[in-house]
Each structure stands twice: as C-alpha cells, then as structure tokens.
Amino acid sequence: MRPRVEEVRIGGLGVIDEAVLELSPGFTVVTGETGAGKTMVVTGLGLLFGGRADPSRVRPGADRARVEGTLLVEAGGRVAQQVEDAGGEVDDGQLIIARTVSAEGRSRAWLGGRTVPVGTLTYLADDLVAVHGQMDQQRLLQPARQRAALDRYAGEELVKPLRAYELAYNRHRQVAGRLAELTSKARERAQEADVLRFGLEEIEKVDPKAGEDTELREEEERLSHSDALRTAATTAHGALLGDPMSGAETGQDAISLLGAARAAVDAVRDFDPALAGLGDRLAEAGYLVSDVATELAAYAESVDADPLRLAAVQERRAQLAGLTRKYGEDAAAVLEWAGRAAARMADLEGDDDRIEELTREYDELTDRLTALAGDLTRVRTSAAQRFGEAVTRELAALAMPHARIVVQLSQAADFAPHGLDEVELRLSAHPAAPPLPLGKGASGGELSRVMLAIEVVFAGADPVPTFVFDEVDAGVGGKAAVEIGRRLATLARTAQVIVVTHLPQVAAFADQHLVVEKASDGSVVRSGVVTLDHEGRVKELSRMLAGLEDSELGRAHAEELLAIAAADRA
C-alpha cells in the first residue's frame, strides 16, 4: 500500500478558523473565491511536512495555528520504521502528524504521538510528499535544484558511483585541509621544535634525577651546619655518658644517675612487686640511654666539615634551580616535561614525512576523484538525454507541442560534493528558438507547465506518494488548461494529487472537489472547507467559468467540462 494523506484538520491559520479536509486517494482539487483561503490549504500541508513557520499566518485573535494530519501508511514499511525510530507509533496503519505555530513564532511538532524536532517532519516528507507552490517554481530556476532533479531522474544508476565519489570527496577534503595546515604552519613548527630541542639539550646536560633536589637540599643543610651539629652531638653524649677524657667521676651524667636510681630500688625490690617493676624499667632506660649515647658519639665522629663538598652541592643545586625555573617545580616535574617534549619533538620531526605521505595520498585521491567524476558525468549525460526527451513529450501534451527541453551539462572548475557537473535546464519555445535558461526562455505559465511535466516524468521514475500543487496552472488558460487537468489526472493514477486551482478546466478532471467557502458577519471573516457533490461541482465550475453560480450558459459549460473529463478518465 502506498502512503497517502487521508484527512487534514486546520485551525487558526490565515482566514481559516476551523476546517477539515477529507482527501481521496486520486486527484483532489481545491477551489474558492479570491481571499477565501485556498492557499492556506497548501500552507497547512506544508507545515505538516516541516515547512517554514510564519507567525504572520496565525489567524488574528488566535494564540496559535494548528494543523493535524492523518496518513495511511504500510505497517512495517519504510515510513512506519522511520516513525518508530523517532519514538512515535503507527496505530493500525494510521499515522498522526501535528504541528502548531504560535503568534510569537514558536513552533512544535508531533509524530505518532511523540514530540519531535520539526526537522524530523522534513526528513520524513522526502518519502511522503512533494509540495509545489509558486516559490517552488522559482527554486526550479536554481542550478542546484536542476542538478538534483536530474540526479533524481537518473535513479539507481547514479546511486553507487555518487556514493563512491562522495566518500572519496570527503577524504580528499580532509587530506587537503590537513596538508594545508601542516604546510602553512611550517615556520611555527620549526620555531617550536627549536625551543623544545634547546630545552631537552639543557636538561640532558644537567641530567637531573627524580628526588635529587630534595636530597641535595638536606645535604647542604648538614654541611653548612657541621660544627653546630658536631657540638650538639658531643654535648648530648657528655650529658648522657659523661666525658671519658676528663678523668673525673662527677656522677652527674644520665647513665650514673639512672644507675644510682636503679641501685636504690634494687635494694628493696623484694618487698614489693610494684617497685620491682619500676626497677626493671629503670634498667631498660639505662640500656636505651647508653645506646643513644653510643650513637651520638658515632654521629659526632661522622660529621665532617667539607668545604669542597659543600661548594659542589651548592653548584649542583644552582643547576637544578635553573631547570625548575623553566620546566617544572622540582626535578620530577622537569623530567616529566622532558618526556612530553621528546614526544612532541617526534611528532614535529615526523611532520615532514607526514606531509610527504599526505601529498602522495592527495594526488592519488585527485586522480580517483577525476575518474569517479567522469563516471558521474557519463551517467548524467545519458540521463539528461532521456530526461529532456521525456519532459519534451509531456510538454507536447500540455499544449506546448513545439517546445523542447534540453539538459545542458558543463564542467565546474573544481570538485564539488556532487561531482564536476553543473546542470542547467534550457527551454526552446519553438524549433527556431535557441535553448535558453528557464528563467529567460519560459513565461510564468510555461514554467508552471514545465514543472508539472517534470513531476509527471518523475512519477514514472521515482514516484512520490502525494503531490501538492498550488496554482500550477497560473498564467494558463484555454486548451492548455484542459491539458494540464488531463496530465494531473494521469499523475493521479499512480499518486495522490492535491491541487489548488482557479481554472474550471483543471477542476473538472478531479476525482474529488473541495471548495473553500468564506463567510463574514461584517467584522470577522471565516473560511471552511466543503466537499462538493455533482450538483455542487456544477455550481462551482459555473461560478469559475461565468462568475455566476446559476448562469444557464455557465452550467451547461460546466456539465460539458465534467462530461469531457469523465470520458477522458474512463
């Protein structure tokens, strides 16, 4: 089952207060008097599929415009899968899409019951609908749109080579950017390398060790205060053990005093266990003080005032200080800086090799891109021939029998995301006329028919489920209008077609006819949408033909148009 729009509800949009459009699977036409709000129907459909939100379109007095659409889609199909990927749901083959636009310009969108970014609706629309208004005709004049039209017509034949080209093109840009960056910053890289090289050489010359600065600071303290340290150790030793060189027994050293205390306690220790315990502790204290005194004597002997070593330590500390001022707070930090600098030096010194590698890859990618662009050109050239002939045949059916569409390909100066091809649609209005760009060779009405012809051709190559046209028949009348109606009816055999028109010749070919009716109480204008039966269609076509709903001549002409259209469809 092909997706289609089943129902659209519009509220607070332009002159439309509330309206419901129940749409048929085939050709639906929307008509109405000037100012009734026909274009708001197309605007509403455009909003539903991610169109630009214009707060000026919000109905005066309303806080927001609202559009809600019910679409029939295949459960488990591509569209349903996209909805599920966005977090929405398709209920029994029905998809609900909604959009609001506030008077302040804020816009919100819902897809399958889930709030989504408006861009999600735009993405989804690619598989659902092609909306064409007067602005779309102007966009058709843009070279990029014309190339996109040709690529769409080329179809699957172009997909694989275009994908291969796009992958190569993206890599080509990355390589070119990196190569330009490395080349343009060669001087900066050389300066950075010099700074790093000087620092590494300076550090290598000093050859610091982790923790060395702390050890040297402690050694300098000892060497600078060697006399005071030796005197303190000797004095402490004398206080604990006495001076053996004096020859006098003063008995005032700590060992002697502890010995006297221990002797006093030992004399009576048998009479009280508590005192005996204290005596043991005095013995332990004597042994400890004796050990400390011995170590103090050894320390005093080890302290050496070495002016040469002190000078060497101070010089080494000065060297380390020179490094820590530049590269880190201590020797360990300096070594860390050296490690990072060495790694960065390796990168910088490898840039020349990298430039050589990138240059070689760039040249290879350029050759590959040239070959791939040639593949694209061959596919497009073949498609351009077929496309031009197909559109020319459709123009003949749209009362432009002598017109001819030519698709001209030219080569751009540099690679672009789509290749080297620049595409331009040209129109030759008659056999003697040279093919001219559409903007110069086509009038407004002719441009409308060219656009319709292109969509009819697309319908056979890459059909879109729903087409929406806003006054595609602008500037057209007479026989050409009949042919436009006939081609729209043909297009509706394979797709749902919704057309806003002011021409009865086009409206007569519709399977369903909706009229936008305008009502006014003198101060407020409201519009609604009504589905017409056969009698209603006769009256509306009569109004469109003669300006009078009940004109006998107009009614007769309307009946004739409907009969011709019915016979043609049959």
UniProtKB/TrEMBL annotation:
It comes from the Bacteria. InterPro entries: DNA_recomb/repair_RecN, P-loop_NTPase, RecF/RecN/SMC_N. Keywords: ATP-binding, Coiled coil, DNA damage, DNA repair, Nucleotide-binding. Residues 348-375 form a coiled coil. GO terms for molecular function: ATP binding. One of its GO terms (biological process) is DNA repair. The keyword Ribonucleoprotein does not apply. Residues 17-521 form the RecF/RecN/SMC N-terminal domain. One of its GO terms (cellular component) is bacterial nucleoid. May be involved in recombinational repair of damaged DNA. Belongs to the RecN family. This is DNA repair protein RecN. It comes from Spongiactinospora gelatinilytica. The gene is recN.
